[in-house]
Amino acid sequence: MRILHVLDHSLPVHSGYTFRTRAILKAQIGMGWEVAGLTGPRQSLFGDSPAEADGLRFFRTAAVAPVRSPLREWREIAALGRRLDEVIAEWRPDQLHVHSPVLNALAALRVARRHKLPLVYEIRAFWEDAAVGNGTDREGSARYRVTRALETHAARSADAVAVICEGLRGDLVKRGIAADKIMVSPNGVDLHMFGDPPPPDTALAAELGLPTGADAREVVGFIGSYYDYEGLDDLIAAMPALLAARPAAHLLLVGGGPMEAALKAQAAASPAADRITFAGRVPHDQVERYYSLVDILAYPRKAMRLTELVTPLKPLEAMAQRRLVAASDVGGHRELIEDGVTGTLFPPDDPPALAAALAAMFADRAGWPHRRDVARSFVERDRNWSSNVSRYAPLYLKLAGRG
């Protein structure tokens, strides 16, 4: 079977989106299928992109001339549709697998019908909610309602729909999409990339100004993108109370994003300023060194539609690294974390509760080895990409038989 994945962006860009894509394509190749990706015009925002990355083949779409929204989006849809026509004629896929955002689905639907190809639309997050989470729109606006209607139209028009979690599936069913048309392909981890965690990198700890003695170090960490919905302002706000309970505590923030300047200003004004370290963005092949310094990975996402419906990838990677996980009690986290078993859940938007949860975890070091083993076993059993991707096989075969 030859499968063409239609994508917003791909490797060599590093993001949660591209890592999920990489995992899917690699696992499908391992199943004996031929796969390739086609990226949309926005890939060009990240610079020149080769046709091959990490052993994977990608077709590219040329950038469109910059214009204001919404004309820009419609031009992007048209450009991707034309390029998809060309790629289908050249590569002759048996199956189109289109990944969100909805712009990709709108570009591919007509082309798929014209070529009589089955189309699976995979939704990783609703575009309207992602815009609210990124601070570029507000819930209930005219743009929000139009985008929501387009998302519903695309799901209804596709031959099948894949989503990454039960929250998205439930929301689509409420919109009138048939439940038997939707499959759940949850986020997972490529366990070939996560073996035994390395020992703490003491040289890096010294470079960052972290304590190097194991007995003196109590490091809370976040490794990812600095978006408002991640709740990192609550994590910084929790630090004075955490230090009052655990004087050795230190916060390490690795990454960057739209909230970076505001978070640095908040940290500089905090009484805990000398215990908050911003490491900046780091190359992906260096991330494991930073994981090695963190005792507890914290994910204090705020309570909103995006975080209630969508499961993140980072907590699973932390569990695979045998790191302790503390996360806000929102729907996306509850699908991944069993409180007190594979991680700790605390009330969202509540810095004192966050501080208390972290302090309690540091006070229970005797229970850490068991919790790490249980969390790692959960990932191996239920969130391993090699088994997750096998869920697509019966769907593809069903659609091929229908065709």
TrEMBL record:
Database matches in Gene3D superfamilies: Glycogen Phosphorylase B
GO molecular function, one term: hexosyltransferase activity
Name of the protein: Glycosyltransferase, exosortase A system-associated
Location of the Glycosyltransferase subfamily 4-like N-terminal domain: 16-188
Superkingdom of source: Bacteria
UniProtKB keywords: Transferase
Family matches, as PANTHER family: SULFOQUINOVOSYL TRANSFERASE SQD2
Pfam family, one: Glyco_trans_4_4
Source organism: Alterirhizorhabdus solaris
